[in-house]
Amino acid sequence: MTPALIQEFARQCGFELAGATPALPIEEAGYYRQWIAAGYAGEMRYLTDHRADVRADPRKLLPSAKSVICVGKLYNGPEPYSTRLDGKDLAWISRYAWGEDYHDVLRRGLERLVEKLGEHAGPFDWKICVDTAPLLERAYARRAGLGWIGKNTCLINQEMGSWFFLGELLVSLEISPASPPPDRCGTCTRCIDACPTAAIIPTGLEEGPAWAIDSGLCIAYFTIELRGPIPETVRGQIGNHVFGCDICQDVCPWNTRAAVTSEPAFAPEHFAPDLEKLAQISADEFREIFRLSPIKRARYSGFLRNVAVAMGNQRAERFREPLEKMAQSSETIVAEHARWALTQLESK
Ligand code: SF4
Ligand code: SF4
Known about the structure:
Order of helices and strands: HEHHHEEHEHEEEHEEHHEHHHHHH
Strand order of the largest sheet: 1-2-7-4
Shape: globular
Helix content: 25-40%
Bound molecules: iron/sulfur cluster
Largest sheet: 4 strands, antiparallel
Distance between the termini: 63 Å
Radius of gyration: 21 Å
Number of strands: 10
């Protein structure tokens, strides 16, 4: 089966990018282990537990796998980047989380792709991976020709930019492999210079990636994954981010004219909401409003913790009243971050 045929089938299933690479262990697994050993995964145990070993070989997920089909689905919209957002009352939610949870959307597309491949090639073994299965998806996607890995560690496609969800289909079919595209970051350091917490760090590796993200410094980690308090040393750098951070992609020159999705499921429901409104939502409302959104991953108390920090960083008097209410919250973590935010109002 040829890469062109895979791309055509994938396009019919809603994927802008597609390619294939052999389902074999790759050297990037070694770099990944070094990243874990250096402590850069923070408290994300799903990255460091037994699943870390499974990542080294796709055949541990599907023993008969011969190829990894990698697909990319655009989620970018025409809305402004966070670095251009005008409005101190507004919260920033990461671009990928404005619409429906991508896991379900990608899975549905990959299921359609399985059907199309089956009609063409007859029965075969397959396994769908969308984040949930431990696979080094960006590394395989690069090898499958979808793009290169930028210094911001995102997969970047020369024509369309980096706003892609990635998914994989392990198959027992032989598919002619693609070639990885060249790294086109060159001497650019915009993402490194723009990161508010200096989370993009040099690896010092003689071979392998020169740059990595230290999750323990990254705003996306603090606002999505971290369950406990956000260290006071970084709260001031978080700005108005309440779920994730896009800065290192917003400033990337390859995203200046990034392609825009036509997927209705990614219509922007949660673009730059009002901070004060977010501060007032109850736990039930949180569950209802973000029922179909990846934002539910932050959990109610974590999300309100982030809202309190964002309000404190605006140092705006109009946030005093909502913050005083939050400081009375029965959720200890919310109350503590609201008290911190009130001290920021005092120091304005
Ligand atoms: S997501 Fe934000 S905090 Fe994390 S590396 Fe990129 S710019 Fe830095
Ligand atoms: S901002 Fe520059 S260095 Fe960073 S990923 Fe984009 S091109 Fe590469």
